[in-house]
Amino acid sequence: MSVILVVGMQWGDEAKGKIVDLLSEKADIVARFQGGPNAGHTVVIEDDEFVLHQIPSGILRGDKECVIGNGMIIDLRGLVEEMEQLRERGLQIEDNLVISEGAHLIMPYHRLLDGACEQLRGKRKIGTTKRGIGPTYADKVSYKGIRVCDLMDETVFARKLEFSLKEKNFLFRQFFRLKELEFKEIYEEFLNLRDKVRPYIRDTRALMREAVQEKKNILLEGAQGTMLDVDHGTYPYVTASNSSIGGVGAGLGIPPQKIDHVIGVAKAFTTRVGEGPLPTEERGKIGEILRDRGNEFGATTGRPRRCGYLDLVVLNHSCWLNGVDHLAITKLDVLDTLGKIRVCTHYEFEGEILHNVPVSTEIAERCRPVYEDLDGWSERTSGIKRYDELPDKAKEYLSFVSNGVGVPITIIGTGPGRSDAIVLESLFQK
Ligand code: IMP
Description:
By secondary structure, the protein is an alpha/beta fold.
């Protein structure tokens, strides 16, 4: 048995969904521990593309227990729609989906507040997904959140909703000059949604404890990436949760020493959606090539992603913070046409060399990336499944990355399909 964490090394969108899908074949349980519908995990199976926002990607296997942990925040309307879509495509969710009674609910006022705050920030906007993520976590840590278990009790739900609406409607009316929200409308909608999810609700803390004690194979599916972690990312251009390993204990109730392996997932280049520092960003032709070849458009919002070369300063930071012992490098094939491939090895800031990601965003924004230039391979790697079939220059590129961070590369993604990958080591033991 093993507990394996799959975590993003960059700013999200590293193709974690594909890695989770690959590894979930041998898993008994796939669990998410943070974030909400801001995530978009795309998995391609034959000609079918699935984009999952809240349900763990393991659901596509049909026989895995898929857990929405207490550290996640849930948009019930979206979740019910996602469940419907999976059912329509013939997927079995009845016996497989489990929703934590401790997870917090994203309420309509959270979504409204998210949009209104973004507008207020003007030029310094975060570029959020406008799914209500920040305001929901803010209510959680200021003791005003509404949890799934609260919704199970109509009286508690009504009391909490009434209290929250009083404050939020004051803000909407007096500060944002927006229309107030109606108690009755929200109350009725949520009770209706509750009936659709009730059979799936459980104490996932107890479930995870039993699973670890019964030595099941457990896959922990991170969302977003380490550079979006509220503590270790490029604050304030982050998401509101701990998207690195720190979120596991809080968001599922698994003690850290029970995690056997940490697989850090990084693209062979860098992307970011939304605002904030991105030292290796390529605003010209290279950026366009990466965006076009990698189809780099947000799975949740459709926004074009900002693209650039791989940043080893970021990768080093994320490998250390998460205790990564295996790397998955995805989308290698996107680099196939580049004659020269640059890799950022350190930054320069006002004449000083930096090997660490600066804590200050203002400094990070002004860092100049320093590159090492490697030869491209100018050969097609799409769909390659064996390491020895890769061009030598592609192997050199991968070695350079692996040596740069001192972590072996165990999985290499060579295309969007489920089987477009080179797997060098199978980590789950049955
Ligand atoms: P929020 O999580 O919607 O509040 O957005 C905060 C920041 O995180 C924005 O820059 C978003 O673009 C980014 N973000 C949130 N979720 C994801 C994701 O799944 N992939 C990539 N970026 C994300």
